[in-house]
Amino acid sequence: MLNTTRRRALCALAAASFAFAGAAGAQDSARWPDRPLRIVIPTPPGGALDGTARLIAERLAASLGQPVVVDNRAGANGAIAYGVVAKAPPDGNTMVLTLSSLILTSLMVKSPGYTLQELTPVSLVAMLPNSFAVAKHVPATNLRDFIAWARNRKEGVDYGTSGPGSSANILGSMFAQQAGINMVHVPFKGEAPAVQAALGGQIAVVIGAAGTLAAQAQAGQMKLLAVALPNRLKDFPDVPTFGELGYPAVSLSGWSVMAVPSGTPKPIVDRLSSEITRIVQTPEISARIFAYGFQPEGGTSDAARRFVQEETTRWTDAIKATGITME
Fold this sequence. Notes:
Elements: H1 4-31, E1 37-41, H2 48-64, E2 68-72, H3 79-86, E3 94-97, H4 101-108, E4 119-128, E5 130-135, H5 143-151, E6 157-161, H6 167-179, E7 183-187, H7 191-199, E8 205-209, H8 210-218, E9 222-227, E10 254-261, H9 266-280, H10 283-291, E11 295-296, H11 301-322
Parallel strand pairs: 1-2, 1-3, 6-7, 6-8
Antiparallel strand pairs: 3-10, 4-10, 4-11, 5-8, 5-9
């Protein structure tokens, strides 16, 4: 056994080591950022998330005094992007602008290459509300009429989404279960081809981003019947929520959270959280993000962490209820 003197000496050495590490971490935080930053995203260039990331990157660079580049790492339902950042050094120089696939992929893929514990939420950047729209040829102007029409179709009703295992796919399956109708999922590679299929009369329903489908409704090309949010969209006050229509469990929407590798010093996380919240709540940037179909949010790291925990529970229950998989 160690004698008392030696034990005290080792404890003192350990304490000194931790103190040194803490001081070094504080010094690193004080110098941060001292080189270019990177925002990794799980989608290709040109989409709504890419545009949002570039808006944030531009303003973040101006505020922090360092270049901020957007790194598109599309593929594997987001696992590539999330894995890259989960394994990156926790120094605040690499972050990821996620989608709700952060949770969905971790729940539905056996070995996604990352865990939720490896990433620390910085701020809830935006909500991506799902909505339910029907093609012009569908003889329904509200959800009740749609359900009545669908129940008379033995062959079922085709609904399109951006892909298998997406939040829209799970929403559609859960709604069909609760409404007692047969809806057949038709996965597309993105929302745009799903919308085109509806406009061409190949499918009856599209479930996807409210911004995208609302634009089609405004143009008279589709009919928007419901939104998956706690409250109605301010720009479309006549469109009810699923909750109002008697389907509160169907209020499943996407979202985007900025996250960094776990272990990133708290002062850096807090600085990023403050800067990102300021950026997305700036009227000019907020309007541009809203034009992408997103609802700008912002908020603290603690609030974002609680949000992700709550969403993990919600999506776990939804996946179990529907049996949806990423195929």
